[in-house]
Amino acid sequence: MRRVLTALCMAVLGLVVFGLISVGSASSVRGGSIHGDPLYFTYRQIVWCLMGSVGAIIAARLDYHLWRRPAFYFTLGGGLLLALILVLIPGIGSEVNGSRRWIRLAFFSLQPSEFAKLGVVILFSVWMDAIGWRAKQFLKGFFFPCVALVIVLVLLMCEPDYGSTAVTAALAGAILFVAGTRWIYLIGSGIAGIAGISVLVWNDPVRLARIQAWLAGADSGSAAAHQMKQSILAFVNGGVSGVGINNSMQKQFYLPEAHTDFIFAITGEEFGLVGTLSVVLLFVTLLICGIWIAFKASDRLGRLIAFGLTLSIVLQAALNMGVVIGALPTKGLALPLLSYGGTNMLATLTAIGILINIGRHAEEVEADSHAHMVRNAAQRI
What pTM was estimated for this model as a whole? Predict the structure, then answer.
Protein backbone atom coordinates (compact mmCIF):
# COMPACT_ATOMS: atom_id res chain seq x y z
CA MET A 1 0.00 0.00 0.00
CA ARG A 2 2.90 2.36 0.67
CA ARG A 3 3.94 2.16 -2.99
CA VAL A 4 0.37 2.88 -4.09
CA LEU A 5 0.14 5.95 -1.85
CA THR A 6 3.52 7.14 -3.11
CA ALA A 7 2.42 6.71 -6.74
CA LEU A 8 -0.82 8.58 -5.96
CA CYS A 9 1.05 11.50 -4.39
CA MET A 10 3.51 11.66 -7.30
CA ALA A 11 0.68 11.66 -9.85
CA VAL A 12 -1.14 14.45 -8.01
CA LEU A 13 2.07 16.45 -7.67
CA GLY A 14 2.74 16.03 -11.39
CA LEU A 15 -0.75 17.25 -12.28
CA VAL A 16 -0.49 20.26 -9.94
CA VAL A 17 2.89 21.27 -11.36
CA PHE A 18 1.62 20.76 -14.90
CA GLY A 19 -1.38 22.89 -14.00
CA LEU A 20 0.66 25.74 -12.55
CA ILE A 21 2.82 25.87 -15.68
CA SER A 22 -0.23 25.79 -17.96
CA VAL A 23 -2.15 28.39 -15.94
CA GLY A 24 0.91 30.64 -15.87
CA SER A 25 1.11 30.55 -19.65
CA ALA A 26 -2.60 30.48 -20.53
CA SER A 27 -3.52 33.37 -18.21
CA SER A 28 -0.56 35.64 -18.93
CA VAL A 29 -2.28 37.68 -21.65
CA ARG A 30 -5.53 38.02 -19.71
CA GLY A 31 -3.71 38.85 -16.48
CA GLY A 32 -1.60 41.52 -18.14
CA SER A 33 -4.57 43.03 -19.98
CA ILE A 34 -7.06 43.14 -17.11
CA HIS A 35 -4.92 43.31 -13.97
CA GLY A 36 -1.64 44.71 -15.30
CA ASP A 37 0.30 41.62 -14.17
CA PRO A 38 0.87 38.57 -16.41
CA LEU A 39 1.35 36.40 -13.32
CA TYR A 40 -1.78 37.64 -11.52
CA PHE A 41 -3.70 34.37 -11.90
CA THR A 42 -0.57 32.28 -11.31
CA TYR A 43 0.04 33.84 -7.90
CA ARG A 44 -3.57 33.22 -6.89
CA GLN A 45 -3.40 29.63 -8.11
CA ILE A 46 -0.27 29.03 -6.02
CA VAL A 47 -2.13 30.32 -2.96
CA TRP A 48 -5.01 27.95 -3.67
CA CYS A 49 -2.58 25.06 -4.11
CA LEU A 50 -1.10 25.83 -0.70
CA MET A 51 -4.55 26.04 0.89
CA GLY A 52 -5.54 22.80 -0.83
CA SER A 53 -2.37 21.16 0.48
CA VAL A 54 -3.36 22.16 4.01
CA GLY A 55 -6.81 20.68 3.39
CA ALA A 56 -5.20 17.48 2.09
CA ILE A 57 -2.94 17.18 5.15
CA ILE A 58 -5.86 17.68 7.53
CA ALA A 59 -8.01 15.18 5.61
CA ALA A 60 -5.16 12.65 5.57
CA ARG A 61 -4.86 12.86 9.36
CA LEU A 62 -8.58 13.02 10.18
CA ASP A 63 -9.96 9.49 10.61
CA TYR A 64 -12.61 9.02 7.92
CA HIS A 65 -14.69 6.95 10.38
CA LEU A 66 -15.59 10.23 12.12
CA TRP A 67 -18.11 10.88 9.34
CA ARG A 68 -20.23 8.12 10.89
CA ARG A 69 -20.86 10.30 13.92
CA PRO A 70 -24.18 12.16 13.69
CA ALA A 71 -22.56 15.48 14.59
CA PHE A 72 -20.17 15.31 11.63
CA TYR A 73 -22.75 13.78 9.28
CA PHE A 74 -25.51 16.32 9.85
CA THR A 75 -23.08 19.25 9.99
CA LEU A 76 -21.76 18.30 6.56
CA GLY A 77 -25.25 17.83 5.12
CA GLY A 78 -26.61 21.04 6.64
CA GLY A 79 -23.58 23.07 5.59
CA LEU A 80 -23.84 21.75 2.03
CA LEU A 81 -27.53 22.68 1.71
CA LEU A 82 -26.94 26.09 3.30
CA ALA A 83 -24.15 26.92 0.85
CA LEU A 84 -26.24 25.85 -2.15
CA ILE A 85 -29.11 28.04 -0.93
CA LEU A 86 -26.94 31.06 -0.13
CA VAL A 87 -25.46 31.12 -3.63
CA LEU A 88 -28.97 31.73 -5.03
CA ILE A 89 -29.65 34.78 -2.82
CA PRO A 90 -28.95 38.13 -4.54
CA GLY A 91 -26.28 40.07 -2.71
CA ILE A 92 -24.63 36.88 -1.48
CA GLY A 93 -24.38 34.82 -4.63
CA SER A 94 -22.60 36.37 -7.60
CA GLU A 95 -24.09 36.11 -11.10
CA VAL A 96 -21.71 35.64 -14.04
CA ASN A 97 -22.87 34.96 -17.61
CA GLY A 98 -26.39 34.19 -16.45
CA SER A 99 -25.33 31.66 -13.79
CA ARG A 100 -25.28 32.20 -10.05
CA ARG A 101 -22.58 29.77 -8.90
CA TRP A 102 -20.22 31.75 -6.68
CA ILE A 103 -20.32 33.25 -3.19
CA ARG A 104 -18.17 36.38 -3.16
CA LEU A 105 -16.06 36.82 -0.03
CA ALA A 106 -13.54 39.50 0.85
CA PHE A 107 -10.59 38.31 -1.23
CA PHE A 108 -11.89 35.29 -3.13
CA SER A 109 -14.98 33.42 -4.29
CA LEU A 110 -16.27 29.97 -3.39
CA GLN A 111 -18.23 27.66 -5.70
CA PRO A 112 -20.49 25.46 -3.53
CA SER A 113 -21.21 23.04 -6.38
CA GLU A 114 -17.59 21.81 -6.20
CA PHE A 115 -18.02 20.89 -2.54
CA ALA A 116 -21.42 19.37 -3.34
CA LYS A 117 -19.74 16.51 -5.24
CA LEU A 118 -17.42 15.81 -2.32
CA GLY A 119 -20.25 16.06 0.20
CA VAL A 120 -22.60 13.77 -1.73
CA VAL A 121 -19.90 11.09 -1.99
CA ILE A 122 -19.29 11.14 1.78
CA LEU A 123 -22.95 11.40 2.81
CA PHE A 124 -24.15 8.65 0.48
CA SER A 125 -21.26 6.37 1.45
CA VAL A 126 -21.97 6.76 5.16
CA TRP A 127 -25.70 6.16 4.65
CA MET A 128 -25.26 3.07 2.47
CA ASP A 129 -22.67 1.66 4.85
CA ALA A 130 -25.00 2.19 7.82
CA ILE A 131 -28.00 0.41 6.29
CA GLY A 132 -25.92 -2.59 5.22
CA TRP A 133 -27.98 -5.38 3.64
CA ARG A 134 -31.06 -3.11 3.64
CA ALA A 135 -29.55 -1.40 0.57
CA LYS A 136 -31.75 -3.67 -1.52
CA GLN A 137 -34.91 -2.33 0.11
CA PHE A 138 -36.83 0.31 -1.81
CA LEU A 139 -37.22 2.86 0.98
CA LYS A 140 -33.83 2.83 2.68
CA GLY A 141 -31.73 1.71 -0.27
CA PHE A 142 -33.28 3.95 -2.92
CA PHE A 143 -36.14 6.27 -1.99
CA PHE A 144 -34.64 8.12 0.98
CA PRO A 145 -31.25 8.71 -0.71
CA CYS A 146 -32.98 9.85 -3.90
CA VAL A 147 -35.12 12.38 -2.03
CA ALA A 148 -31.96 13.92 -0.57
CA LEU A 149 -30.25 13.80 -3.98
CA VAL A 150 -33.19 15.50 -5.72
CA ILE A 151 -32.98 18.41 -3.26
CA VAL A 152 -29.29 18.89 -4.06
CA LEU A 153 -29.83 18.54 -7.82
CA VAL A 154 -32.71 21.03 -7.83
CA LEU A 155 -30.53 23.60 -6.06
CA LEU A 156 -27.75 22.99 -8.61
CA MET A 157 -30.19 23.36 -11.50
CA CYS A 158 -31.43 26.66 -10.08
CA GLU A 159 -27.94 28.17 -10.48
CA PRO A 160 -28.02 26.73 -13.25
CA ASP A 161 -25.07 24.31 -13.39
CA TYR A 162 -25.91 21.44 -15.73
CA GLY A 163 -22.39 19.99 -15.66
CA SER A 164 -22.18 19.70 -11.87
CA THR A 165 -25.75 18.40 -11.79
CA ALA A 166 -24.90 15.55 -14.18
CA VAL A 167 -21.65 14.67 -12.37
CA THR A 168 -23.28 14.74 -8.93
CA ALA A 169 -26.16 12.54 -10.10
CA ALA A 170 -23.73 10.08 -11.71
CA LEU A 171 -21.63 9.87 -8.53
CA ALA A 172 -24.67 9.22 -6.35
CA GLY A 173 -25.98 6.59 -8.75
CA ALA A 174 -22.60 4.84 -8.88
CA ILE A 175 -22.35 4.67 -5.08
CA LEU A 176 -25.89 3.31 -4.79
CA PHE A 177 -25.09 0.68 -7.42
CA VAL A 178 -21.88 -0.62 -5.84
CA ALA A 179 -23.51 -0.52 -2.38
CA GLY A 180 -26.23 -2.93 -3.51
CA THR A 181 -29.24 -0.86 -4.61
CA ARG A 182 -31.35 -2.81 -7.10
CA TRP A 183 -30.36 -1.89 -10.62
CA ILE A 184 -33.98 -1.70 -11.78
CA TYR A 185 -34.54 1.28 -9.45
CA LEU A 186 -31.44 3.02 -10.77
CA ILE A 187 -32.29 2.44 -14.42
CA GLY A 188 -35.81 3.82 -13.95
CA SER A 189 -34.59 6.93 -12.12
CA GLY A 190 -31.79 7.39 -14.67
CA ILE A 191 -34.24 7.40 -17.57
CA ALA A 192 -36.49 9.84 -15.73
CA GLY A 193 -33.52 12.08 -14.95
CA ILE A 194 -32.30 12.13 -18.56
CA ALA A 195 -35.82 12.94 -19.74
CA GLY A 196 -36.07 15.81 -17.25
CA ILE A 197 -32.68 17.23 -18.23
CA SER A 198 -33.65 16.99 -21.90
CA VAL A 199 -36.80 19.02 -21.30
CA LEU A 200 -34.85 21.68 -19.39
CA VAL A 201 -32.19 21.90 -22.09
CA TRP A 202 -34.86 22.16 -24.78
CA ASN A 203 -36.33 25.17 -23.00
CA ASP A 204 -32.93 26.80 -22.36
CA PRO A 205 -31.79 28.69 -25.49
CA VAL A 206 -28.14 28.89 -24.40
CA ARG A 207 -27.74 25.19 -23.63
CA LEU A 208 -29.81 24.17 -26.64
CA ALA A 209 -27.56 26.27 -28.89
CA ARG A 210 -24.52 24.45 -27.49
CA ILE A 211 -26.07 21.06 -28.24
CA GLN A 212 -27.01 22.10 -31.75
CA ALA A 213 -23.53 23.54 -32.38
CA TRP A 214 -21.94 20.30 -31.19
CA LEU A 215 -24.16 18.22 -33.45
CA ALA A 216 -23.44 20.53 -36.41
CA GLY A 217 -19.68 20.39 -35.84
CA ALA A 218 -16.95 22.94 -35.21
CA ASP A 219 -17.21 24.36 -38.73
CA SER A 220 -20.92 25.17 -38.49
CA GLY A 221 -20.11 28.88 -38.18
CA SER A 222 -22.44 29.46 -35.22
CA ALA A 223 -21.37 31.54 -32.24
CA ALA A 224 -21.87 28.56 -29.93
CA ALA A 225 -19.33 26.52 -31.93
CA HIS A 226 -16.60 29.15 -31.58
CA GLN A 227 -15.03 27.64 -28.44
CA MET A 228 -15.04 24.16 -29.93
CA LYS A 229 -13.40 25.35 -33.15
CA GLN A 230 -10.71 27.38 -31.37
CA SER A 231 -10.02 24.51 -28.97
CA ILE A 232 -9.52 21.99 -31.77
CA LEU A 233 -7.31 24.49 -33.58
CA ALA A 234 -5.07 24.64 -30.50
CA PHE A 235 -4.43 20.90 -30.73
CA VAL A 236 -3.75 21.20 -34.46
CA ASN A 237 -1.24 23.98 -33.83
CA GLY A 238 0.48 21.93 -31.13
CA GLY A 239 1.00 18.81 -33.20
CA VAL A 240 3.19 16.16 -31.61
CA SER A 241 5.78 18.21 -29.74
CA GLY A 242 3.94 21.53 -29.22
CA VAL A 243 4.90 25.13 -29.92
CA GLY A 244 6.71 25.58 -26.60
CA ILE A 245 5.89 27.10 -23.22
CA ASN A 246 4.27 30.54 -23.40
CA ASN A 247 4.11 30.41 -27.22
CA SER A 248 0.40 29.66 -27.53
CA MET A 249 -1.55 31.72 -30.05
CA GLN A 250 -5.00 30.64 -28.85
CA LYS A 251 -4.53 32.32 -25.48
CA GLN A 252 -4.40 35.68 -27.30
CA PHE A 253 -8.18 36.02 -26.69
CA TYR A 254 -8.98 33.55 -29.49
CA LEU A 255 -10.01 30.81 -27.08
CA PRO A 256 -12.40 31.93 -24.30
CA GLU A 257 -11.75 30.54 -20.81
CA ALA A 258 -8.25 29.47 -21.87
CA HIS A 259 -6.97 29.23 -18.28
CA THR A 260 -10.07 27.59 -16.78
CA ASP A 261 -12.37 25.18 -18.64
CA PHE A 262 -10.15 24.93 -21.75
CA ILE A 263 -6.74 24.69 -20.08
CA PHE A 264 -6.25 21.26 -21.67
CA ALA A 265 -6.35 22.85 -25.13
CA ILE A 266 -3.52 25.24 -24.23
CA THR A 267 -1.59 22.28 -22.82
CA GLY A 268 -2.07 20.51 -26.15
CA GLU A 269 -0.91 23.55 -28.10
CA GLU A 270 2.21 24.26 -26.06
CA PHE A 271 3.24 20.70 -25.13
CA GLY A 272 1.71 18.84 -28.06
CA LEU A 273 0.56 15.24 -28.08
CA VAL A 274 3.39 14.35 -25.72
CA GLY A 275 2.06 16.75 -23.10
CA THR A 276 -1.59 15.76 -23.40
CA LEU A 277 -0.77 12.05 -23.22
CA SER A 278 1.34 12.74 -20.14
CA VAL A 279 -1.64 14.41 -18.45
CA VAL A 280 -3.90 11.50 -19.41
CA LEU A 281 -1.33 9.03 -18.06
CA LEU A 282 -1.18 10.89 -14.74
CA PHE A 283 -4.98 10.72 -14.43
CA VAL A 284 -4.89 7.01 -15.30
CA THR A 285 -2.31 6.52 -12.54
CA LEU A 286 -4.59 8.39 -10.14
CA LEU A 287 -7.49 6.15 -11.20
CA ILE A 288 -5.53 2.93 -10.69
CA CYS A 289 -4.25 4.05 -7.29
CA GLY A 290 -7.72 5.15 -6.17
CA ILE A 291 -9.35 1.87 -7.22
CA TRP A 292 -6.57 -0.08 -5.53
CA ILE A 293 -7.12 1.87 -2.29
CA ALA A 294 -10.86 1.19 -2.54
CA PHE A 295 -10.20 -2.52 -3.15
CA LYS A 296 -7.83 -2.79 -0.19
CA ALA A 297 -9.80 -0.55 2.21
CA SER A 298 -10.23 -1.97 5.70
CA ASP A 299 -14.04 -1.68 5.72
CA ARG A 300 -17.09 -1.07 3.54
CA LEU A 301 -17.24 2.65 4.35
CA GLY A 302 -13.66 3.11 3.17
CA ARG A 303 -14.34 1.20 -0.03
CA LEU A 304 -17.40 3.31 -0.86
CA ILE A 305 -15.74 6.66 -0.11
CA ALA A 306 -12.54 5.77 -1.96
CA PHE A 307 -14.49 4.58 -4.98
CA GLY A 308 -16.70 7.68 -5.01
CA LEU A 309 -13.85 10.17 -4.61
CA THR A 310 -11.74 8.50 -7.30
CA LEU A 311 -14.69 8.48 -9.68
CA SER A 312 -15.49 12.14 -8.95
CA ILE A 313 -12.00 13.28 -9.98
CA VAL A 314 -11.52 11.02 -12.98
CA LEU A 315 -15.07 11.43 -14.32
CA GLN A 316 -14.84 15.22 -14.26
CA ALA A 317 -11.43 15.05 -15.95
CA ALA A 318 -12.79 12.76 -18.67
CA LEU A 319 -15.80 15.01 -19.29
CA ASN A 320 -13.62 18.12 -19.47
CA MET A 321 -11.25 16.49 -21.95
CA GLY A 322 -14.21 15.26 -23.97
CA VAL A 323 -15.55 18.80 -24.23
CA VAL A 324 -12.15 20.28 -25.13
CA ILE A 325 -11.55 17.83 -28.00
CA GLY A 326 -15.10 18.31 -29.29
CA ALA A 327 -16.41 14.86 -28.34
CA LEU A 328 -18.99 16.34 -25.94
CA PRO A 329 -21.09 19.53 -25.92
CA THR A 330 -19.57 22.56 -24.19
CA LYS A 331 -20.31 22.87 -20.47
CA GLY A 332 -18.65 24.59 -17.56
CA LEU A 333 -16.56 21.84 -15.96
CA ALA A 334 -13.01 22.47 -14.78
CA LEU A 335 -10.14 20.04 -15.30
CA PRO A 336 -9.23 18.90 -11.76
CA LEU A 337 -5.80 19.97 -10.51
CA LEU A 338 -5.02 21.82 -13.76
CA SER A 339 -7.70 24.46 -14.37
CA TYR A 340 -7.48 27.82 -12.65
CA GLY A 341 -9.94 27.94 -9.78
CA GLY A 342 -9.62 27.83 -6.03
CA THR A 343 -12.70 25.88 -4.99
CA ASN A 344 -12.02 23.03 -7.39
CA MET A 345 -8.39 22.82 -6.26
CA LEU A 346 -9.35 22.89 -2.58
CA ALA A 347 -12.07 20.24 -3.00
CA THR A 348 -9.91 17.96 -5.14
CA LEU A 349 -6.86 18.05 -2.88
CA THR A 350 -9.09 17.46 0.15
CA ALA A 351 -10.48 14.40 -1.64
CA ILE A 352 -6.92 13.20 -2.25
CA GLY A 353 -6.21 13.63 1.46
CA ILE A 354 -9.20 11.44 2.34
CA LEU A 355 -7.98 8.79 -0.11
CA ILE A 356 -4.58 8.83 1.57
CA ASN A 357 -6.27 8.46 4.97
CA ILE A 358 -8.20 5.40 3.78
CA GLY A 359 -5.00 3.94 2.33
CA ARG A 360 -3.12 4.50 5.57
CA HIS A 361 -5.81 2.66 7.53
CA ALA A 362 -5.61 -0.22 5.07
CA GLU A 363 -1.83 -0.28 5.50
CA GLU A 364 -2.18 -0.42 9.30
CA VAL A 365 -4.63 -3.33 9.03
CA GLU A 366 -2.24 -5.17 6.71
CA ALA A 367 0.63 -4.57 9.16
CA ASP A 368 -1.45 -5.81 12.10
CA SER A 369 -2.48 -8.91 10.15
CA HIS A 370 1.13 -9.64 9.26
CA ALA A 371 2.26 -9.19 12.87
CA HIS A 372 -0.53 -11.50 14.04
CA MET A 373 0.56 -14.17 11.54
CA VAL A 374 4.17 -13.89 12.73
CA ARG A 375 3.12 -14.27 16.38
CA ASN A 376 1.01 -17.33 15.60
CA ALA A 377 3.89 -18.88 13.65
CA ALA A 378 6.28 -18.21 16.51
CA GLN A 379 3.90 -19.83 19.01
CA ARG A 380 3.62 -22.96 16.86
CA ILE A 381 7.40 -23.22 16.72
Answer: 0.90
